[in-house]
Amino acid sequence: MSSDNVLKANLITGRTVEQGIAIEGFKDKPEYIDAAGVVQVDPSDLKAVNIWPGSTVLAKSDYGEVVVKAARSPYGPHPGIVFIPMGPWANQIVNPDTDTTGMPSFKGISVTITPAPGQKVLDAITLIKTTTKGGVEA
Amino acid sequence: MRTVTDIVCPFCGTLCDDIEADIDESGKILQTRNACVVGDNKFMTLQSPDRHLHPRIRKGGELVECTMDEAINKAAEILANAKHPVYYGWSSTSCEATEAGMALTEDTGGIIDNTATVCHGPSLLAIHTVGISTCTLGEIINRADCVVYWGCNPVNAHPRHMSRYSLYKRGFFTERGKSDRTEIVLDVRNTETAQKADVFLQPEQGRDYELMDALRVAFRGEPLPESVAGIPRKDIEKVAQLMKDSRFGIIFFGMGLTQTRGKHRNIDIAISVTTDLNKYTKFLIMPMRGHYNVTGANQVSLWECGFPYAVDFARGFPRYNPGESSTTDVLMHNEVDAALVIAADPGAHFPIDMVKRLASIPLIAVDPHATPTTEIATVHIPSAMVGAEDEGSAYRMDNVPIRMRKFVEPPEGILTDKEIIERIHERVKELKGTPSVIYERALEKPAVTVTAPSFDSLLQKAT
Question: Is the ipTM of this structure higher than 0.90?
Answer without folding.
Answer: yes
